[in-house]
Amino acid sequence: MGQFNQHEKTLVFCATQDHALAVRDLINQMKTSTDPNYCQRVTANDGELGEQHLRDFQDNEKTIPTILTTSQKLSTGVDARNIRNIVLMRPINSMIEFKQIIGRGTRLYDGKDYFTIYDFVKAHHHFSDPEWDGEPIEPEPKPEGKTIPPLPPLVDRVREEPVEYVKRKRIKVKLADGKARTIQHMMVTTFWHPDGTPMSAQQFLELLFGKLPEFFHDEAELRAIWSVPETRARLLQGLAEKWFGAEQMAEMQRIIDAENSDLFDVLAHVAYAMAPLTREERAARARVEISAHFNGKQQAFLDFVLAQYVKVGVEELAQDKLSPLLKLRYHNAIADAVADLGQPEEIGRVFAGFQKYLYQPSIQSGL
Known about the structure:
Blueprint: E1 9-13, H1 17-30, E2 39-41, H2 47-58, E3 67-70, E4 83-88, H3 95-103, E5 116-119, H4 130-133, H5 154-157, E6 169-174, E7 180-185, E8 191-192, E9 198-199, H6 201-211, H7 219-226, H8 229-241, H9 246-255, H10 263-272, H11 279-293, H12 296-312, H13 322-329, H14 334-341, H15 344-353, H16 356-359
Helix pairs in contact: 7-10, 11-12
């Protein structure tokens, strides 16, 4: 971080999505900027939030985010003209991919005469293409007088050893209710208080625990709110207004090892120390109730909805997702959807009505 201008837009290519997350956290720990969005991860797992970070990064009028970490996603198709640094932290085995990645830095921009490649993995050693590279440029004659010894090549100055990955420790945090929650212990700050000060994961957990009673008073009320798309949306909006938005909740999912769980499980775990279920487990148990309450064609559609829920998350159950789901399931043939499922009002009732079976208490039996 001390070797380049921290205000320059930079792409960091990492080995895996988890590696990209760890590098993002480390950069945000070492940065001089006070903006919490200075460095963001953009990978396949980051969905629409990652796409928004990418759009902001590509906007030459915006300076935040300044650095993006990624694994595979940004090696092609990123038209960000003001990229000044490309950082390679993963092996590259294809010359085509190597050229594509380096090509992210070749876009022209006012005042941009060059870009810099930081090759931590010696990727350039594997590729030699004189036709693409061109002939070496002869150095200009040095003026008479005192000469300045050249710096050693960058690739010789960077650490050559393979990157070591440290397994994250797990710690237990006892909250005011006397019950402990287990979280991943992180050396870096990934959360920010509404007043702009950084927080540890433990501090964020404690803050969220203290705020949740403002939104629901017990487990039954949380279930009732979460079972209905409209009230769930209002709860999520209320949490976002208190600084517990989608990005913060996604981080909380990660630190309690619940990335494959519903956000309901995150809230229930924080508020009541309930063990999270995976979305796959919720879907499997809900299918039993669905088979008893809906006809065959409705079951087929709801099974498709559940598959999307398991794959993407609870956002697929939002009311405004119904139309896109119908178009996806019926290949834009809405008339076929109506023929199978009934009029729009009936389809809406089916879509909203089945969701209570995902969150009813029996689903949590045995925990």
